[in-house]
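2024-03-11 09:14:02 INFO receiving multi-entity request
2024-03-11 09:14:02 INFO entity count = two
2024-03-11 09:14:03 INFO echoing inputs for audit
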Amino acid sequence: MTTTLDYEQVTAFAKAVRRELTDLGPDVLDDLTDGLEADLADKLADGEPLGDAAAYAAELRAAAGVDVSGRRSHDLDAAVKKAFHDLRDEFRGFVGRHPWASATLSFLETLRPVWWVLRGWVVFGIFNWRRQWSGVPDDVMQWLLLAALVVLSVQWGRGRWLPWRWSRAAVIIVSIVAVVMTGPVAYYSQLQLQENDDYYYEPASGLVLDGNQVTNVFAYGADGKPISDVQLFDQDGNPLALAGQDQEYIEQYLQNGDYSYLVPNENVAGRKGWNVFPLQASPEAPGWDAGNGPYFDDVRPPLASVQPLVGYEAPQPSPTEPSSTENDGE
Amino acid sequence: MDTTQLLKGVLDVAVLAVIRDEDGYGYDIVRRLRTAGIEEIGDASVYGTLRRLYSAGMLSSYVVPSDGGPHRKYYGINDQGRAMLTDHRKSWEQFAGIMSGLLNEKRTARVVKIGEKA
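2024-03-11 09:21:47 INFO inference complete, emitting structure
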């Protein structure tokens, strides 16, 4: 049975021993001194003095083969840890010597929570490998998973939810993977967002008027009557084409819910006559099975005629051409 | 003669031997060693040795909570540790035989080399 006095002595001694061994890193230290208090208490109970903590620590260190002087530390694990600690010490020294470095570091430390959230998101993206590592959730389950991972990552950042000795190692590995994967996940997320945009909005090609695609153009002469086979060009002499040369037809939805396919004029040499108006409709989409062809309608001008231009004078009928109106009555 | 130097080489085997039949925690193992006659051994040396054997995969370890006191860390030998113990026992017996022969005043003329079957 240990008395309170013994216990205080034991904890103080164990604390002093651990302080002597901090250079070994937390994992080795834990391995080496876990349960030390119980053993020391037994030792006291057996009537043995605890002795000198520094000498005790040195003996422990030597027997365990983790002497940092390198005499007995053959194992790779210890060597890697030593290298890591050396690097860390060097970094701390550098930061200590340069005020700008410590200012930058303290700024970055403020941003640590942002990194915790980002880490959760990147891990979500990695879990989402079926969707090519996209970090964009698109159903309730995915939102829940994302939320859970972000909470987990933040808790890790706060030093919580690390039940096992190897938990910290796991956090380091996950963090390294997350750093590496941040680029790909961001890239594929952006790609998916773009795809979503493409899905919702038809890309604008051809001619657009007030945001609506122009599917046909109707020309009227000075007399207000429709004219056909009008070739239109822009200010640079380029054909005012409603579609690209690689395009076979324009799908046109009609007001009655049906649709037809507008095709380029075939009488333009060397290219598709997408600038010869009005475009004519095809009974079915070229290349489609004609079996149940879509609705076909003649292209009718939206207005049978428009107002003639002011000052327009109809040409006098030639005396050699009999007026057709005279025969209408027959 | 101070046996401390001698002990350093064989502490690993001694520790494995005292937990061969029953798991033990740190100070318990120290007691067993002392009871067996190894009295000069420092407890920190034993704990360090336990940690090294554990790292080398010879031992398993688990923590047992204790009523009203600090928890105890128990060590048990595993198959790898047993194999090592068997190996060491064989070479120890051979070596001890040689040393006994060498140190015996009425030693025979024949000197047996280490590793050679007597």
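2024-03-11 09:21:48 INFO post-check: Confidence is low (pLDDT under 50) at residues 69-73, 290-296, 326-330 of chain A.
2024-03-11 09:21:48 INFO post-check: Residues 41 and 47 of chain A are 10 Å apart (CA to CA).
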